[in-house]
Amino acid sequence: MAELPLEALRKLSDLHPKPANLHFQYGTAGFRTLGSTMDSVMFRVGVLAGLRSKKLDGKTIGVMVTASHNPEPDNGVKLVDPRGEMLEASWEVHATTLANAPTTEAFIEALSTLVKNAKIDLSKPARVVYARDTRPSGPALVAALEDGFKAIGVSARNAEVTTTPVLHYLVKAINTKGTKDEYGEDSEEGYMEKLSSAFKKLVAGKVSPPPLIVDCANGVGARAAAKLSDYLGDSLKLILHNTATTTPGALNNACGADFVKTSQKIPPSLVSILKPGQRACSLDGDADRLIYFYLDDRGLFHMLDGDKIAALVAAFIVELVKGAGLGEEIQVGVVQTAYANGASTKYLADRLPVTCVSTGVKHLHHAAERYDIGVYFEANGHGTVLFSPETTEKLNTHQPSTPAQSTALGHLVNLTRLINQTVGDALSDMLLVEVVLVYKSYSGIEWDSLYHDLPNRLVKVVVPDRNIFKTEDAERRLISPPGLQQKIDELVRRYEFGRAFVRPSGTEDVVRVYAEATSRAQADDLAYRVAGLVYDEAGGDTSRRPAEFL
Ligand SMILES: CC(=O)N[C@H]1[C@@H](OP(=O)(O)O)O[C@H](CO)[C@@H](O)[C@@H]1O
Ligand SMILES: [Mg+2]
Asked: Ligand 1: distance of its center to the CA of 504 in Å?
């Protein structure tokens, strides 16, 4: 058995010392914090990625350097497993342990323990593909990551500056190359070609829709969308805005999917551009989230979020499955979280099976894998559609009995190619939405009227210790602090169609309160009453109690 290359590890690790006063945690979004503090984390993730690859017999692991929709000075890093999905949960713990070893010696000791416990054969090859978004802190952090690769002897491929979904695509494409399940050519061009050719086949013979305005959040999505636009040609005209990827401070600033979803507003930069009735969409900083919106005749803003995308797409896929004569054989299901608008859940549950899971993409992804075709979206616009291997096989081999069945089947096969099944992908999802809108001859207005969102409010509550909040039932009910859930239940009963839940955030040091009810005023009232309860119960400082809490 080969040994750890101690000399190289020591020498390079000493160049990337861990800041003494900081604790790092590999959470829902990998490691994510102020970019300027992440040098040691990056180095160690480089080493870890190498070990993960060795553990998996030299399969290629992905590393993405991004902090997505967070402010520009933040950065982050996450690992991608060989099939393009998120890192296996047990390794999240290893990542956290390695990142927090206080010294080089402690780091090397933690590595030895990991190698022993996880039975990693160090003589195996290590392969990694990595990329970064457009953040200014990216190049230096990537250099630290590369030192990590060097220290453990990784054969590393630099995918340069690209989106998170492209990196996930590359991982899967590389690992399936030359097999019968080949995912696509392992390059950004291969990705563009795969998506755009599937899109063109799907919309062939249909009337081209009016141009679509795309808010690129001044991030890496701007570059990818510009390339995709060339591939799409006349099949879909994209008008790109917020493409200032090199302007300091511009990233995610008053634009992008998270801004639109959280503030429920049009990005100010689009106010004079968007005409009533025209469709627009926003990507987030690494282009894995998508939110649509439009202005009505009175200039009022309407948002079409992840729930609306799920409703549109799931209903369309069900129709195609039935149309292909496979309604009895293929079960389409939807996965949501508690943040899904109650009206969307009702709309969907009347039509197909719906599962609710805990927040975080990995939970949604795994639950969606249990359906033959699983549609999953978070309300914030992150989501995709998964076709099980058996379903894909069935679609490729099924013999249709009529020309209509054959057409529907062809559309389904093209959808399996249009959709990035590794992870939520703003550009792939955008093309998917556009396909459905073309087929249905829907504008944003008709799409929006599938169901009417219940007014809702999301509130952050800062408490001394958010870890006292424990939940059950896919985070919809509190089991701790004791008695609090009963008080929330009593409050909720007083509101028509009232619903509220409380959970600790996995990415920020806050407790989140969500509430919905039939009117804006009622939703706000319920949210701020629950927020008040939470604040008081958690021992929040009475002198700093936010004025809006009731
Ligand atoms: C209410 C909300 O939007 N929560 C987000 C947020 O998680 P929290 O655990 O709520 O902080 O970040 C996650 C990672 O990006 C995302 O998956 C999730 O949807
Ligand atoms: Mg993102």
From this structure: 10
